[in-house]
Amino acid sequence: MPADIDVLLVDNEPSFAQLAAEMLTRADDSLSVTTVTSASNALETVEETPIDCVVSDYDMPGLSGLELLEAVREDNEDLPFVLFTGKGSEEIASEAIAAGVTGYLQKKSGREQYTLLANQIRNAVAQYRAETELRESEKRYERTLTGLHETTRDLMRAGTKGEIFRAAVDTADEILGVPIVATYRFDPTERNLQHAASVSATAEALDPDRTYEHDEGHVWDIFSTGEMGYVPDVQAEVGEDTELRRRSEVIVPLGTHGMLVAGSEARDGFDETTIELIQILAANTEAALDRAEREQLLRDHDRRLTHQNEELTRLNHTNELVREITRGVAQATTREEIETTVCDRLVGGERYLGAWIAPTDDPWSPTARSGIETAYADRISADGESAPEADLARRAIDDERVQVVRNVLDEPAWEPRRSVALTAGFQTVLAVPLIGRDRRYGAVVVHAPAADAVTDREREVLAELGETIGHAIRTAERTRAMVTDERVELELSCTDEQLLFTQLARVLDRTITLEGIVDRADGRIVCFVRVPAYPADEVDSIADELAVVESAAAISEAEESVLVDVTITSTPLLDILAEFDTRLRSVTADGEISSMTVQLPQGVDARSVIEGIQEAYPTTELTARRETTRKHSGGHVNGKIESTLTAKQLEALQSAYYSGFFEWPRESTGEDLAETLDVSAPTLHYHLRAAQRKLVDLTFDDGSN
């Protein structure tokens, strides 16, 4: 067995020193003994050669054994030192012990003393080495701990979780000396552990790219418990693939952020100190991840606040702009004034660069504009239906929703406008539909400077503004219609079997004509229909034939025709006409085709009316269109009729007019009308005379001669 303890034997008698060395090696072959004959030589040897133990005589020339002990202790206070002397006394023994000698043995004859000396040397060196190793271990632990604290500062300075995961594995590798280490990030959406970072040696040992799914494997189990786990023998305890180099592993949860997994190629390859240091590293990493998450939340919160403040500022500006536009629109008296006011106020607020009105029929032909150069407007008109602005406005009008192009520079359809956008400085374009009581008056197209410059809340405010403008235009058009009778008349033909008048003509087997329609106060509708050569006593059978008809009765009977009132609740045709404030002037139906004349007030979109009727009755076709203009002789009389008469009075007056009550000779009597309106005859006459009196008052009070 090779020697593993180096002994320095000091004795001024060379022959005894040599003999003692031989006897010690015989007593214990693990001892390697070097002899010197003076204290000075001993000190030189201790300085130049690794020595595990010094054995010295007491009485020597120059320096005594105790003086040599003091000199050795100055350089190495823990080196074992045995005093082996022939002058034994209690005084010397006490002095030696007080000086810190490791062992004391008196020289005697016989081999036993060398056996005792060898034992003392071996025991002293074993204790010395153990204490030295402990001190070195403590120093290494302190150095490692200091390194961990230094890296903690790096962890805390890391900006993202990814950087922290990477710093953790680098620290385990470089500071703790753990070459097999990886971190896994918990994904709350996928509910799994995904690889975050690992050192190069880990690929062959830990399978770092693996994703641990929910409730899969011992790593997930440890993560779920939140407590550190040590697996000293992976193959025996877990049964994982033995081709991977790791044989033992330490698994430490990083709070709710993920896991740190450290591996060793040896079974039970982690001592308590290393496990403790890994736990400290994990705790520091978790704290850094917590800090990064808090800071990220704060940054997100600050960004949200900044965004909300910017949005609130824009919204306040938009609301103020809307109030200004609303005030300006309220003062305008014509549609042209309203459209001009809207465009001017939108651009005057400095929130938008340009604004223009896209009409319903031709959205590529601006009717009013502000901030839009003539060349640009001409280009839109020249492109016609293919203009991207026209498509945007059309979609806004058809869908009755605000439409937005967030960045014209990114939209392929807007590529022809990119040079214009760069020159004019706009990137966002939006179209706001102008809707008033289900009536479409076009759209206002607005250009904003920045990309994605309009928030969702701002879109809602602008949509409300569009409704306000639409109502203002509707009011202006209705006011104008009270003074000037500008009308559009549409002649339509329809072969749809579901049309009420076609059904009536087919059931009656006659060509019928519509005399007029009265909207009853109770929601029912009375249609006055003239039927040629039909028995009056068979009229009431119409209600049995047609489910849409509530009742039918003959009001008057002449030689060639009978006037019938047909009471219904509603039909799609009449609903559509009411939606657009249009009037059904006449209808002729023969059971196969119905020819209708529809009168539109000024400003109503004829195409929308036709499309609405065609949606309900697909076979409807436009056969003619006429425009008429006529000044009222009575000034504002016609405009005041509806506001002056009560609902009952208007109902009685309309029913009397359409039933021929004012003809001479009368086609209907008061009793007939009373029965139609489901009132008594005196009540009918009361309402009718009151209505007539009010009409006369309006006529004369208006200043007419």
In short:
Helix content is 47%, strand content 22%. By secondary structure, it is an alpha+beta fold.
Low-confidence stretches: 632-637
Biggest beta sheet attributes: 8 strands, antiparallel
Tally of distinct domains: 4
- The fold-level CATH name of the largest domain is Beta-Lactamase
The CATH superfamily name of the largest domain is GAF domain
| Number of helices, where a helix is a run of at least 4 consecutive DSSP H or I residues | 22
Give the neighbour order of strands across the main sheet: 19-20-18-17-21-22-16-23
How does the helix and strand content classify structurally?
Answer: alpha+beta
Q: So what's the CATH class of the largest domain?
A: Alpha Beta
Radius of gyration: 54 Å
Please tally the β strands and state the result.
23
Query: What would the principal axes of the Cα set say about the shape?
Result: rod-shaped
* Head-to-tail CA distance between termini: 147 Å
Q: What is the CATH architecture term of the largest domain?
A: 2-Layer Sandwich
Average pLDDT, rounded to a whole number, is 83
How much helicity do the residues have? 40-55%
